[in-house]
Design a protein that fits this description.
The structure is a homotrimer. The first copy, chain A, has a single domain, classed as UDP-N-acetylmuramoyl-L-alanine:D-glutamate ligase (3-Layer(aba) Sandwich). Chain A contains eleven helices and nine strands. Chain A has a nine-stranded mixed beta sheet, sandwiched between helices. The longest helix of chain A is centred in the last third of the chain and has 22 residues. The radius of gyration of chain A is 17 Å and the shape is globular. Chain A starts with a helix and ends in a 7-residue tail after the last strand. Chains A, B, C: This is Hydroxyethylthiazole kinase. Chains A, B, C: It is an enzyme of class 2 (transferase). Chains A, B, C: It catalyses: 5-(2-hydroxyethyl)-4-methylthiazole + ATP = 4-methyl-5-(2-phosphooxyethyl)-thiazole + ADP + H(+).
Chain lengths: ~270, ~270, ~270
């Protein structure tokens, strides 16, 4: 897997990423995708989501502020995406925090073909029927075995699962990778995970092996966050947020290759 | 009242703050709460708001872009919060600008037990049935007696009323405090008041005396704004907005104690 | 046309701008209007939009994340604005990307009196029935004659048409102006066009000749963007976005007069 090549491909092709996402993160998600070099579009209405999804490079579904109308639009868009071979990414924000979120995430997984799920450990555990603790939409790092959780969830849902946290795990049930980039201050920026899910969509739009596309997206994002944190270390989360947008635009394929750390399982560096 | 102690308690406990707020300020509110050290969650659907409100440390209702579905969700969430002893904060954004906003604010006050209301003078006057001038959601500083307005509104609604402006007034009808922190450039950042209401929620989640929690939240926010303005004085409102997020994270309990100015009524410094 | 005079008038009068806009750009639009010196308000509910529109200085309709309820509110608000002589601005975001967007933009143009439309070439071409290519909400610069498109669309819809891109064209069908300010990095900030449409609303609120108000708004915005880009040239789109908000507040009437480049047709400088 050549991380820099996939990043360059996103920038060259500028795929259209159709987001049905929550009202908290729409602006930051769109700006992050633009900074990366992708083309964001948000469209929610049942009247148009099929038309938009079918011309997109990827469809990203995020349940952060869901309601019945939005869920219906997600199903319509997801079916159109599935019919046209457009990859669908799911971000199960806050699954486990309320029964409605958990059941909606499970419904989307049941009715649609999902290329990848990205969430924290508690969210993934909850949609997989394991009762990990969660507070609101900030998943507490559970005590369980995150590597095993990623594998079993990937097998259960026949998809690629990315669990992000101190270290990120990517698994399709047989191959499991660990991505060791990123920075803790990301947890102080709302929608940092949601934007990452959208970026996973952009990478999956141009690289059809989803384990590779997801791991490359995570490494790219982690490297950008590391550089942004280095440059704004003492300034606070406001400055970091802005510098993250800068670095998503500025980070080069070479830097991602050089700084990206991806290991097979929890062990040897395979990158 | 020890301002620094309450701030430290918020940071230690990181209360979950459930916001049902307007679409303009969701991102800024969430980032401000994260910067403070609280855990924001936005949830709007009737299907889940009761589940979210009952596990929250506080529920913050903001009518800035209301519609009938959101109002229904506010009532459901508010009842669940009331049943579980979760304090409810109301921000009556734009009350007085349209009859719908005024009557909705009044309905929420009638049907729910509200721990505190935060608004500008015109908003509070309008929901109290006094016809102060208001332009859109930016309340003009009326000519009336703001101290008296806060007291009478607190008595009328059996709640703590915070009227923010050049000076901030906090009253429960018997005790009335004036908070003399803040900076005029806050009026150039959309949602500066809405974020303050959410922060009032975070402080009220950890300090059960609402006059104290509200005054402490106002002093903390005002001190952060003052420092942010000092650091970005000539740069403009964009830079100030980012530095405010920084300072919400960086300001120490000691700085808030040292710079916070809270007086009893309009007179003696009681802090 | 005296560019500086119109800008100063906006700042002196601080018109209330009622926006019914998309969920991606609400915060940035509100902050940009505040930075300019206008008073933004967002109100969407059928229950209140007529009350808000009739007291506004301008109504700005943006179809970026439309749904049937919002379209109904746009019609109600638009009729109230029309009845009370409040100018209405239309931003047909993504017209052409889906049939729903195209037909909704056309419906608004048919049922309401619109003072000005602002969009990119593909959006304007699509609502005028010309099939220019568009990808999502980012209009590709078509190969057609943009000057001719602006003129013919203005005649077709009996309104002022502003097509923004590398150069901006403003036409009422007989007078056509070209505005040569701005910077390419604007395309890396989501909602840069949407904010411009809202600013067109603010200028049209205080200057009744819409060709003048629209051209002045475009020149002001372009000059602010140029200065912001000069100050943040290498830093990236995050820093540019914040500096743009700064410059919208800081740029003086004198600077706009000095740097604004407006030519008649595509030729002689008429400013």
């Amino acid at each position: 897997m050549e991380l820099g090549v996939i990043l360059q491909k996103v920038r060259n092709e500028s795929p259209l990423i159709h987001n049905i996402t929550n009202v908290v993160v729409t602006n930051f998600t769109a700006n992050g995708l633009l900074a990366l070099g992708a083309s964001p579009v948000m469209a929610y209405a049942a009247e148009e989501v099929a038309d938009m999804a079918k011309i997109a490079g990827a469809l990203v579904l995020n349940i952060g502020t869901l309601n019945p109308e939005v869920v219906e639009s997600m199903l319509i868009a997801g079916r159109a995406a599935n019919e046209h071979g457009v990859p669908v990414i799911l971000d199960p924000v806050g699954a486990g925090a309320t029964p409605y979120r958990t059941s909606t995430a499970q419904k989307l997984l049941k009715e649609l073909t999902i290329s990848a799920i990205r969430g924290n450990a508690a969210e993934i555990a909850n949609i997989a029927g394991q009762n990990w603790s969660i507070k609101g939409v900030d998943g507490a790092a559970g005590s369980g075995d995150v590597l095993e959780l990623a594998k079993s969830a990937a097998r259960m849902f026949h998809t690629v699962v990315a669990i992000t946290g101190k270290e990120d795990i990517v698994s399709d049930g047989s191959i499991t990778l660990t991505v060791k980039n990123g920075h803790p201050i990301l947890t102080k920026v709302t929608g940092a995970g949601c934007l990452l899910s959208a970026i996973v969509g952009a990478f999956t739009a141009v690289e059809k092996n989803p384990v590779h596309s997801v791991a490359a997206a995570l490494a790219y994002y982690g490297v950008a966050a590391e550089i942004a944190a280095e440059r704004t270390s003492e300034a606070g989360p406001g400055s970091f947020q802005i510098e993250l947008l800068n670095q998503l635009a500025l980070v080069t394929p070479y830097e991602v290759e050089k700084r990206g750390i991806i290991t097979l399982g929890g062990a040897a560096n395979v990158h």
